[in-house]
Structures are given as C-alpha cells and as structure tokens.
Amino acid sequence: MKADYPWQELYVAAILETDDAKLLTRLPAAKAAIDARLHQLQLDHGGAPDERQAISDALAGLNILRSELEAGSHDTGSSNA
Q: Under a CB-based contact definition with an 8 Å cutoff, are residues 23 and 65 in contact?
C-alpha cells in the first residue's frame, strides 16, 4: 500500500499491526499525525478533497481498530492461536 500523504505511513503501520501491545502505541501516533495534518489543512483553508476523504476514511478505520482493541482487552484470558 503506497502512502500518498505523509500521515498515511503511520496509519498504514497501525492498520497492518498484528501485535496488540504495539498497536496501543501505533494508534495514537497515527491519530496524532492525522490531527496535525487536519490542523495544517485548517490553516491552508481546506486542502484537496481527495486528501480530506482519505483522512475521513482513515479516522473511521482507526476508530474501528480502537473499538476492536478495546473489546479484545476485556476478554477473560487471551488466545494467541
């Protein structure tokens, strides 16, 4: 998966991470990179619509990952089968 935007590298690292412990650090790093880019776009008065859509999709993906991670962390015992 090619990263078209600088923040996408951290996003891709998060969505491809299979180790929950590492994912706990990758999720906030990706979210921070996206938030920083959103701040930049605000200052630049918008940015390209395709990047805004990519950001929206990425945030939705991170939210799903975070929900799955939280649901998994409440399990009684872990299975690494």
A: yes
Condensed to tens digits (0 to 9), the pLDDT of residues 14-73 reads: 999 999 999 999 999 999 999 999 999 988 877 789 999 999 999 999 999 999 999 986
Q: Is 55 exposed, middle or buried (0-12, 13-18, 19+ CB in 10 A)?
A: buried
The pTM assigned to this predicted structure is: 0.80
Q: Which of 6, 13, 15 is nearest to 41 (CA)?
A: 6
Question: 3-state SS string over the chain?
Answer: CCCCCHHHHHHHHHHHCCCHHHHHHHHHHHHHHHHHHHHHHHHCCCCCHHHHHHHHHHHHHHHHHHHHHHHHHCCCCCCCC
